């Protein structure tokens, strides 16, 4: 099983403690082993096959936001603790900037999460925002400004849950969005939107 970077940093302490704390309680050993195993499962990074058209979901989870912002459309995906948390590029393009913004740590499914800590990855035509949640305190971008990414390419992960938003290119309208709130999506595989006016790497 392929793992996201940093997986063993979180899981190894639990495995190392499993032996010593077994002298105090076998139940504690089982708990430590279970925690370590669950952590590795959380950091799983499966291979994905991307379709050849449309804006791809940047995250596994459920669609939690679909809204118009001026002449742009935002689609957000909420990641539960059981979802894969490796994020992928919705469209091909060159990264213009990667900006960290400090903020709160409210539940990522709430309206207040718009003020949470986040990392904005800006491309020439669209923007991807990785948003920390109540428990997630670490956003790990893999890319820097100037890099060119392909659709579906890994670009970062959020340790222990949160939300990923795509601000679609200006050529997209809300009617071009092909998913609904509450719908489950998969990073790099589910098509969020298709626009006849935008040739998205077809």
UniProtKB/TrEMBL annotation:
GO molecular-function terms, A-Z: phosphatidylserine decarboxylase activity
Sequence intervals crossing the membrane: 20-43
Keywords per UniProt: Cell membrane, Decarboxylase, Lipid biosynthesis, Lipid metabolism, Lyase, Membrane, Phospholipid biosynthesis, Phospholipid metabolism, Pyruvate, Transmembrane, Transmembrane helix, Zymogen
GO BP annotations, alphabetical order: phospholipid biosynthetic process
Any Pfam family matching the protein: PS_Dcarbxylase
Record's protein name: Protein sorting system archaetidylserine decarboxylase
Species classification: Archaea, Methanobacteriati, Methanobacteriota, Stenosarchaea group, Halobacteria
């Amino acid at each position: 099983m392929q793992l996201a970077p940093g997986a063993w940093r979180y899981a190894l302490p639990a495995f190392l403690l499993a032996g010593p704390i077994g002298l105090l309680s076998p139940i504690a050993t089982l708990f430590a082993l279970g925690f370590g195993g669950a952590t590795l499962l959380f950091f799983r990074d499966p291979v994905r096959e991307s379709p050849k058209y449309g804006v791809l979901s940047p995250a596994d989870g459920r669609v939690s936001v679909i809204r118009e912002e001026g002449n742009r459309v935002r689609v957000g995906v909420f990641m539960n603790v059981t979802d894969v948390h490796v994020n992928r590029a919705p469209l091909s393009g060159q990264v213009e900037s990667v900006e960290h913004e400090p903020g709160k740590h409210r539940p990522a499914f709430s309206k207040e999460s718009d003020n949470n800590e986040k990392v904005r990855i800006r491309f020439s035509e669209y923007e991807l925002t990785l948003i920390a949640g109540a428990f997630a305190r670490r956003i790990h971008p893999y890319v820097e400004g100037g890099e060119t990414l392909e659709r579906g390419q890994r670009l970062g992960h959020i340790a222990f849950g949160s939300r990923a938003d795509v601000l679609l290119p200006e050529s997209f309208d809300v009617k071009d969005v092909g998913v609904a709130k509450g719908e489950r999506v998969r990073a790099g595989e589910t098509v969020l939107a298709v626009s006849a006016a935008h040739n998205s790497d077809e």
